[in-house]
Amino acid sequence: MSTRRLESMLSSVSVIVAAEPRLREEPAEALVELVLASRQPWWRRAACARALKGRVPPSSTSALLELLKHEQTEGEIKRDVLTVLAEPGQPHAERLLGWLRSLEGTAPRWRARDLDVATARGRLNDATVIPQLAVFAADPWPHRSKPAMEALGAVELETLLTQLGATTLEALAFESPAPERRLVGIRLLHARGGDLLPALADPVHLCAREAATLTKPSPALRVLASTRARGSLWARVALHFRGETIPLDAPKYPLPTVPDDVREAIVREYAPGQRDTDPRWILEGASLDPAGRPDPMSSVQRAFDALKAAGLAPENPVSAGDLNQQGEGTYFSIVFGTRFAWVSTLGPFFYLPSADERAAAALVAAGFRDIDVELGATKFDGLCVYQFGEREPLIVGELLFYWQD
Fold this sequence. Notes:
It is a single chain. With about 400 residues, this protein is of the alpha+beta class. It has 24 helices and nine strands. α10 packs across α14 (about 180-190). The protein starts with a helix and ends with a strand.
């Protein structure tokens, strides 16, 4: 196929997925020609690179290696070219591996992700990169952790254990001093049908939650869940994740300055939280009656009616998403005159950025709680929530009046 016909097939980003199976049928030489064409858009070149998997012409490897070394080549193209070149046993494999090792500490300047370099080294049987892959495997983003785990899963077990400082998979999963290595051990042990019960007592929530997510119900798990032993809370979480009835007498996370109605509203919305969340919040969320979840618009309408009855002439409520012109959130803004109130969709809660006694009195009289500065700034410890790439506990004000693009 000519380059012109390939360009026609890959006319836009939107047709790439449909066209890629057909690319596998095209001559490899024509695909290489398009990959090397710097005038072409990156998405067209990357698609042709992916179609070369398992059939890179030996005469083209030097040119593709030079493409990798060029600092101006887009990272997406480098990733896909690395994927097709990093095949062990090929004549160019040793030369590629030597160059990849030379990139230690220079990947950002090279405009390729450290992860892409590490996984390529892993595919080329470079055992020295295993500890770095273990760190990537613990990343909260699946697009980073998944390829790293796949690379580790392909490593011979004895080699992996040696590089991660363990004698057995159980020792790696339960005894390794590094949480990211225990996490790898837990996943690999699960894949081999091993017993994860000891990992439920892991002191790091990340590891214990992973074990709870992977552990299947068993008599031993149910026994542990009925006790007060270490790991019992995560055993209950494991059963809850499988839809089983669990004991509801778990201790509550201490947060004495947060009123019960605010606490319940936040737990309803955000539990089970992100992966570092304390198990007590997960179990508290499991104990709440699903029928108690409020209609998200009921508070907004009541607040509007209360402000209108107070003679404040409120404008129509505007959602957090519309207010920020993208995304969504858990509050509406109601403008009245030169001021405004935020009203939560999680329950009868409001926030007035500028003090207004008439508005506050009207909303309180209508059954709303004023989330003042002190309460709003209270950190909701132990419950990790995603916000703009971070996964940490937020303050009450951020949770009741949340927005994410």
